[in-house]
Amino acid sequence: MKFELMKTILQSILRYLTELLIWKYKPTVIAITGSVGKTSAKEAVFVVLKGGYYARRSLENYNNEFGVPLTVIGSRAGGRNPFSWLVILLKALLYFVFPLPYPEVLILEMGADRPGDIGYLTSLAKPFISVVTAVGPSHLEFFDRIESIAEEKSKIVSSLHKKGKAVLNYDDPYAQAMAAKHKGSVIYYGFDQDADLKAADVFYSPSGITFKVHFRGNVVPVHLPGALGSPNVYAALAAAGVGIAMGVNLVDIGKALESYVSPPGRLRVLPGVKSTLILDDTYNSAPASALAALEALSRLPARRKIAVLGDMAELGDLTEDGHRMVGVGAVDQGVNYLVAVGPKSKFIADQARHMGYPEKQILYFDTADEAKKPVENLIQPNDAILVKGSRSMRMEKIVREIMLEPHRAGELLVG
Fold first, then answer.
1. How does pLDDT run across 298-335, given as a tens digit for each residue?
2. 351 closest CA partner among 375, 320, 393, 382
3. Which of 329, 319, 260 is nearest to 292 (CA)?
4. What does R_g of the chain's alpha carbons equal in angstroms?
5. What angle do CA 10, 14, 15 make, to 5 degrees?
6. What pLDDT score does 139 carry?
């Protein structure tokens, strides 16, 4: 009870200090939300803007009522250490009292775990540019249906400055519909021909993705080294949309994206033992992102394709259907072996069986710890292995077991 009271007081103080700093320095706020792809989009936006602006982006998953203020202040969380929090608050006061160097642009990731979250965060830092990546069935234990999630996330658009700009994923119907929430400028991005920013001629290789970006008659090539999958293409397109909204030349955007590095655990390509290739997508999982990852795996040149899939959390009433959908995807994408990890992943395996997938090519384990050695024994030279699951499953343990450079795990894998 005492801890909760202190947490409430701290949140109120952080809110007040955040509003003071935004009022004083008036940075251009770029807000990013979505059920999937927020962090990748944030990193891509930062890469595009950092060459021309003093920009700061959210660290890690600082996307809630504490993370957003900490990004505005420019500090990491103080944990349970009162002295650390006191230092953070004093830092904020110093920035308010004295004219210190402060970012021109704040790139803020905004999450919506519960109703009211986006409204609260945008009240702290009113966005001038809002990005919506996609809406899917995540956090359904706090929302009654996907439409409710979309309504909450749409507040990032409806809260825009009247001269602000919305950058929306045209391929996602929920994100596309959010244009109605804003009377100002909208930039659509996606693979669809009707999007303003379009990706075409996408080519996957072990070295990364190469594709072309089309925008109003202009075309530039883009290469994303060490990244695979449509989620990373979407991240680059979102960043291009923000860059255009900020006046960055399309050619410069294409060059900047060459230095984009997919965040740990987000469809990042890693060399594995036995001359294998790992597609590390262990940061989190949802049906849409799992299907995208399976599609990326299918397009890799490899002797065999192995999908190691863990439970997907926070799906609420869609838990069984969501996992079965991924089972369908695994079969449709032609994986050679399916490794299911966790009690919910049994639905993935069961759906594959119903579709005639060979039982001898299905392995099941309760935990990542149980799975890691058998997966290592299963893989052979020139295999490609997708490893994916929700954070609670700790699927990165499997990646650590089979990666070529385990001594770099702290640098390359999800913490």
1. 999 899 999 999 999 988 888 999 999 999 999 999 99
2. 320
3. 329
4. 21
5. 115
6. 62
Q: How far apart are CA 141 and CA 74, in angstroms?
A: 32
Q: What is the pLDDT of residue 248?
A: 97
Helix H, strand E, coil C: the string for the chain is: CHHHHHHHHHHHHHHHHHHHHHHHHCCEEEEEECCCCHHHHHHHHHHHHCCCCCEEECCCCCCCCCHHHHHHHCCCCCCCCHHHHHHHHHHHHHHHHCCCCCCCEEEEECCCCCCCHHHHHHHHCCCCEEEECCCCCCCCCCCCCHHHHHHHHCHHHHCCCCCCEEEEECCCHHHHHHHHHCCCEEEEEECCCCCCEEEEEEEEECCEEEEEEEECCEEEEEEEECECCHHHHHHHHHHHHHHHHCCCCHHHHHHHHHHCCCCCCCCEEEEEHHHEEEEEECCCCCHHHHHHHHHHHHCCCCCCEEEEEECCCCCHHHHHHHHHHHHHHHHHCCCCEEEEECCCCHHHHHHHHHCCCCHHHEEEECCHHHHHHHHHHHCCCCCEEEEECCHHHCCHHHHHHHECCHHHHHHHCCC
Q: How many residues does the chain have?
A: 415
Q: How far apart are CA 189 and CA 245, in angstroms?
A: 12
Sorted by where each starts, the structural domains of the chain and their CATH numbers stand as: 2-190+227-259 (3.40.1190.10), 268-412 (3.90.190.20)
Which position has the token pair 């369908």? 328
Q: Which two tokens stand for residue 274?
A: 């036995």
Half-sphere exposure of 168 (CA within 13 A, CB side): 28
> How far is CA 261 from its chain centroid?
13
Mean pLDDT of the chain: 95
In angstroms, the CA 372 to CA 376 distance is: 6
pTM given for the model: 0.91
The model's pLDDT over 199-224, given as tens digits with 9 standing for 90+, comes to: 999 999 888 999 999 999 999 999 99
Q: Is residue 2's pLDDT more than 80?
A: no
Model confidence at 140: pLDDT above 70? no
Q: What's the rounded Cα separation, in Å, for the pair 265 and 115?
A: 27
For tokens 């979309």, the residue is 150
Q: How confident is the model at residue 5 (pLDDT cuts 50, 70, 90)?
A: confident
pLDDT over 60 at 1, yes or no: no
Q: How many CB atoms lie within 10 A of CB 25?
A: 17
